[in-house]
Amino acid sequence: MCGIVGYAGEDEATPILLHGLERLEYRGYDSAGIAVRKKELEPMIMKSEGKLINLIKKTENGKLLVGNSGIGHTRWATHGLPTETNAHPHYSDDYNVIGVHNGIIENYQELKEKLVNNGYKFYSETDTEVLIKLIDYYYKKYKKGPIDAINKTMVRARGSYALAIIFKDYPDEVWFAKKGSPLIIAKGEKGCFLASDVPAILNYSNKVYYVDDLECGVITKKHVIFYDLNGDDITDEKELVTIDWNSTAGDKGKYPYFMAKEMVEQPEVIKNTIDAYVKDYKIDFEQCGITNEYLKSLDAIYIYACGSAYHAGMIGQYLIENLTGINARVELASEFKYRNYRLREKALAVFISQSGETKDTHEALLKCKQLGIKTLAVCNVKGSTITRDADFNIYTYAGPEIAVATTKAYSCQLIIMYLLAIKISFVKQVFDYETLKGYLDEIKSIPSKVQSIIDNRYQMQHLAARFVAKHDVFFIGRGIDYCLCMEGSLKFKEITYIHSEAYAAGELKHGPISLIQEGVAVVAVATQPDLLEKSVSNMTEVKSRKGSVVAVTTEDNELEKDSKYQIYVPSITHLFTPSLTIIPLQLLAYYTSLGKGIDPDKPKNLAKSVTVE
Ligand code: G6P
Question: Is the bond preceding residue 89 a cis peptide, omega within 30 degrees?
Answer without folding.
Answer: yes
